[in-house]
Amino acid sequence: MSHKPRVLTIDDLESYANAHLPKFARDYFNGGALDSITLRANRAAYARHWIRPRVLRDVANLNLSARAFPDGHSLPFPLCVAPAAMQKMAHPEGEAATARACGAYGTVMGLSSFSMTGLEEVKREADGTRAKAGLEGGSECVLQMYLFENRSVSEGLIWRAEAAGYKAIVLTVDTPYFGRRLTEIRNEFRVPPHLRMANFDASLGVKTGSELRTEELAKTNPSNSSAKLESGQPPNKNDPSMTWNVISYLRTVTKLPIWLKGILSVEDAELAVEYGVDAIIVSNHGGRQLDCAPPTLEVLPGIAKVINGRIPVHFDGGVRRGSDIFKALCLGADMVWIGRPALWAIAYDGENGLKLALSILEDEFRSCMGLAGCSNVKQLGPEYLMPAHPDILSKL
């Protein structure tokens, strides 16, 4: 029986995953676009903010809880697990392991359209472990998706997610084209032959487009034709002609809340509100799309200011510490998401690895809250931060 090293931090999980994952998988998960400037900048941004603690405050009882949905469950702390593709390259159970960990921990799981486990199975796994953990109600899962040129493929995914009990559709809007990721090009990356994209796998009886709808729905949407998919293969390319009118189109397809993932400017944040989006995720795709795009922590305050509480502002990008969560919340985020840390965690020990990662981040966040003199996440604001002097940073 192999002995796994002791893990105390997210960095420990990263080190383990980098040492044990095959090179093609490690490079796929960790790589950024071109020179990876944005990838590195996401992490570096946190060091530019010192925490400004207050003392002699009653922090005996800390309330870290938050909600991803106004009428949703109370989460242990304001952290969710972001969608990430092809998780069976990290662990044989892939997205099922992630779902079980999220269900047991009581947090939200984002599922990638390019999952290697079907979206219905993911929801069942999350629901099952939530029930075993004694938590009331079903799990809160959201489906991340792209709008494909073949609309019926996207519609089929949405309808399946709605039928399975997903809580929102997360439309990724920063991918009219995929970023140029040099590690994948050099490795001539291909999906391993023994794995497949489960949400597009016709051999598993997956239905798409109007096949999934009842005859009544088919009559109201006669243009929705079934998509012909090769077994286990992803669909045709993303639609680069997509504009803000996509929101009104999606409203004709689903009643689920629509979140936009990939907002980096105050102008687009304002447009998201104008077009009736239910939430936004401030994200640069983990540095995998447009290199030299700004780090998410730098644009967060301006976006939060223009949103001004009208819709929830979610955030991802480079989170590795509980103090990173604290800083993002102080700068205007309502909810924070982790991506690569979850992949490293399941690479370490599947479901248990991710529960460990979540507990590490919760413990660090709890400690940060108490030491900063904060007893409730609702208290957090920019007054708890101050800029770090560049001269000091250069010597660290």
UniProtKB/TrEMBL annotation:
CDD domains: alpha_hydroxyacid_oxid_FMN. It comes from the Eukaryota. Glyoxylate binds at residues 28, 146, 181, 285, 288. The active site is at residue 285. Residues 216-239 are annotated as: Disordered. Belongs to the FMN-dependent alpha-hydroxy acid dehydrogenase family. This is Oxidase FUB9. The lineage of its organism: Eukaryota, Fungi, Dikarya, Ascomycota, Pezizomycotina.
